[in-house]
Amino acid sequence: MNKIFTKFLLIICCVFTLNTADAQVVKSPLEEVVYAMRNNKVQEITHYFDNFVPISINNNASNYSHNQAELVLKDFFEKNPIRDFNVMDTGTPSATSKSMIATFSSTNGKYTLYLLMKQKENNYVIKEIKISKE
User: Fold this and answer.
1) N or C: which end of the chain has fewer CB atoms below 10 A?
2) Domains defined for the chain, CATH in brackets
3) Please, which pLDDT band fits residue 19 given cuts at 50, 70 and 90?
4) pLDDT digits (tens, 9 = 90+) for 52-62
5) Contact 85, 34 (CB under 8 A)
6) Which H or E run contains 52?
């Protein structure tokens, strides 16, 4: 009886270990940004902001501080909540950068998003965001 109980506990421990391993899939920084955008959690991408972030919305470009960039994007996406978000292309312009082109629709129309991330020390930071209405 004791051997059966021990085997049962061993099997249970293995099952929990395997389930936990599956749940801990690590996402790349770009995948985390895509997830946040698809789920209207734009504020979650702000931890990828560098000290200054160039943002262009409908050809109105400016270089914003971390806090200003957060407010600008928050304001834009409050006025234009994402309904549908599709990644059209991702790339690696260089060994230390990642880019994405996506389209999204909101209550005010369709938009194209370009995002560039570059490696800084051991992390990736957002170096550029361009949003333009189609």
Assistant:
1) N
2) 27-133 (3.10.450.50)
3) low
4) 999 999 999 99
5) yes
6) strand 52-57
